[in-house]
């Protein structure tokens, strides 16, 4: 990398640093903290770039939930029908007796994709989830 490198120091809780070092170790020998931090920063910046106002994006939302949760499936269904012009596909996987994983593909302006995604993520009973945005422009 023929670039000048700037140094900065980072403060973090020791347990977080321990976990981070575990991640660094998994990347292989010869990989150091700085390289992993650079990768993480690049990933974060890429994600930011994708949400330029008005940009058309494809969002892939992955959620995990317990299908026994009170009328949760119904609520998730309702949100998806309400936004059927934006939601282009969904994939439902029955992970075990209780757990479901769903991948929902949302297409449209970044702002709307995020709004729909947050509605789904904010539905009571959705245990966790993550939205990944990709530009199509
Ligand atoms: Ni299921």
Task: Put the structure in a nutshell.
This protein has 137 residues and is of the alpha+beta class. The protein is 39% helix and 29% strand. The model has no long low-confidence stretch (mean pLDDT 89).
Name the CATH architecture of the largest domain: 2-Layer Sandwich
Percent range for β-strand residues: 25-35%
- Content-based structural category: alpha+beta
The number of helical segments is: 4
Return the domain count: 2
Largest sheet: 4 strands, antiparallel
CATH first level of the largest domain: Alpha Beta
H/E topology pattern = HHEHEEHE
Would you give the CATH topology of the largest domain? Alpha-Beta Plaits
Radius of gyration: 19 Å
Low-confidence stretches: none
Outline the structure in words.
By secondary structure, the chain is α+β, with helices and mostly antiparallel strands. The chain has 2 domains: 14-49; 56-135, Alpha-Beta Plaits (2-Layer Sandwich), CATH 3.30.70. It is 39% helix and 29% strand. The chain is built from 4 helices and 4 strands. It has helices spanning 14-26, 33-50, 72-82, 110-121; strands at 56-66, 87-94, 99-109, 126-135. It has a 4-stranded antiparallel β-sheet with strand order 2-3-1-4. Strand 2 and strand 3 (99-109) form a beta hairpin. The two termini are 29 Å apart. Nickel (II) ion binds next to strand 2.
């Amino acid at each position: 990398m023929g670039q000048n490198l700037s140094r900065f120091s980072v403060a973090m809780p020791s347990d977080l640093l321990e976990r981070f070092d575990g991640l660094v170790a998994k990347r292989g020998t010869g990989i150091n903290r700085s390289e992993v931090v650079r990768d993480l920063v690049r990933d974060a910046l890429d994600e930011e770039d994708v949400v330029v106002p008005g940009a058309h994006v494809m969002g892939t939302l992955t959620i995990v939930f317990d299908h026994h949760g009170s009328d949760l499936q119904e609520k998730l269904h309702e949100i998806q029908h309400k936004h059927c012009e934006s939601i282009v596909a969904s994939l439902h996987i029955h992970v075990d007796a209780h757990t479901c994983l769903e991948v929902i593909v949302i297409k449209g302006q970044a702002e709307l994709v995020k709004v729909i995604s947050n509605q789904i993520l904010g539905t009571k009973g959705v245990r966790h989830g993550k939205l990944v945005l990709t530009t199509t422009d």
